[in-house]
Amino acid sequence: MKILFVAAECVPFAKVGGLADVVPALARALRELGVETAIVLPHYRGVAEKTELGECATVNVPLAGEVRSCKVCRGTLPREEVPVYFLDYPPYFDRPGIYGERGKEYPDSLERFAFLSRAALAIPEAVGFVPDVFHVHDWHAALVPVYARFDGAMEAKVLLTIHNLAYQGIYPRKRAMALGLPQGMISAITHRGELNLLYGGIKFADLVNTVSPTYAQEIQEDGEGLEEILRERAQKGELFGILNGVDYEVWNPEIDPFIWAHYSAAGPARKAINKERLQRELGLAPEADVPLVGMISRLVDQKGFDLVMSAFERMMSLGIQFVLLGTGNPNYEEFFRIAIRRHPGRAAALITFSEEWAHRIEAACDIFLMPSKFEPCGLNQMYSLRYGTVPVVRATGGLADTVREYDPATDTGNGFVFSEYSLEAMLAALRRAVDLYRGDRGAWRRLMVRGMCEDHSWRASAREYMKLYGRLVGAS
Ligand code: ADP
């Protein structure tokens, strides 16, 4: 079986959020199961520094009444021979940002990602990698099944994975010219009067999935305006939820090159060295017994930052230390810049994007906070489990599927969970965590180690994807 991924993000070439971690990790996991995978990605600025590129082909991309010629360079994922075909079209992709700059989306996103989808369809013939299934990710690649339907000649099937329904690629209908599609198709991908690329993808893909079973259910009730089409596909048995996994080659405290001291479930004691070092590096008081609470996140409404903002002083009054790594909404950035000044030696905020610090914070913290309003899957709670950093999460989407409340009576569970989206519920869960940390170190250690021993690798999920591919190609 041959699968061609089409996506806008992929570590180490381009990362904004979880999508970037998922694409290469799933491609690798599938490869280990004997599935031939390759990835199509825009040739963003800086890509050439991260892989050796060979020029291998040219594709002609017909859009808006014009055919553009695009170079395709072949690289590979690090560590593995998964080929990555980069679409080298400088007018669209040789820019400092992936989606935009300084918080502003590029005004030609519609054209850029229509180009990605259109060009991806020309890849098989150009490079000789002829897939059984195009596996397309999020709205950026959602026009693949639309153009495939329009062309009418493609044998490959299309699986669309929705990583986050909050991003749909919505544009005024008057910009439809850019897509080079006939009126009938334009109408078919118009939703509530506007072009909606994700809607088009959901409609025309052969199968659709999201990144956790709970989110797949939730979005049929509250699907950011797309619940009707999602319900329709679900009723036909064509909508699935498959949990993301963790790439333990990258997120593993036993081998993580970014952290100060390696440790494992069998010997978690050296985790304390990471805490001490992080406290020192970030100007936090070197107190081993104060619970250190971490957050690593895009600073967007989805992640529950309105709760954190309004609860911040009460959180700090639980006697914790707090560290945040994130960028995004300038209001949240500003809030944290100011809030930490009120707690010298006890709170720190790194308002930046840093892979290195993300790993260090995972290794150093005792508690990881994710009070998301909604969360399609969430990766950091699973990273936290492996790093012995006990997650405190809201029960939504993938968080509900991966974190179970600690039960002192049976000594089970792997974290702390709250349901209601409220400041009180979040504080209560955090308080339960802090109380256990302070009150019963033995139980805390068992809780940590239980999480560290869990297996959230891609293996099981990759098998689920194989089942979907199998359905698509009529194989078992
Ligand atoms: P989302 O895709 O909604 O952003 P996920 O939890 O699925 O949320 O994935 C987020 C990924 O992005 C994680 O790998 C997380 O560590 C990373 N991340 C988010 N913000 C930052 C940041 N400021 N610096 C480094 N990594 C970050």
Structure overview:
The longest helix has 19 residues, at 109-127. The strands form 4 sheets. A 9-stranded mixed sheet has the order 3-4-5-2-1-8-9-13-14, with helices on both faces. A 6-stranded parallel sheet has the order 17-16-15-18-19-20, with helices on both faces. It has a 3-stranded antiparallel sheet with strand order 10-12-11. Helix 10 (305-316) runs parallel beside helix 11 and helix 10 crosses helix 15. It is built from 17 helices and 20 strands. The N and C termini lie close together (12 Å). The chain is globular. By secondary structure, the chain is an alpha/beta fold. It folds into 2 domains: 2-245 and 458-473, Rossmann fold (3-Layer(aba) Sandwich), CATH 3.40.50.2000; 268-453, Glycogen Phosphorylase B (Rossmann fold). Adenosine-5'-diphosphate is lined by residues 17-19, 21, 164, 296-298, 325-327, 353-355, 358, 377-380.
Question: What's the structural blueprint in terms of helices and strands?
Answer:
Layout: E1 2-6, H1 18-32, E2 36-42, E3 54-63, E4 66-76, E5 83-88, H2 90-93, E6 100-101, E7 104-105, H3 109-127, E8 133-137, H4 144-151, E9 157-162, E10 170-172, H5 183-188, E11 190-191, E12 194-196, H6 197-204, E13 207-210, H7 213-221, H8 227-235, E14 239-241, H9 271-281, E15 292-299, H10 305-316, E16 321-328, H11 330-339, E17 347-350, H12 355-364, E18 367-370, H13 380-386, E19 390-394, H14 397-402, E20 416-418, H15 423-439, H16 441-453, H17 458-473
Parallel strand pairs: 1-2, 1-8, 2-5, 8-9, 9-13, 13-14, 15-16, 15-18, 16-17, 18-19, 19-20
Antiparallel strand pairs: 3-4, 4-5, 6-7, 10-12, 11-12
Helix pairs in contact: 1-17, 4-6, 9-12, 10-11, 10-15
Bound molecules: adenosine-5'-diphosphate.
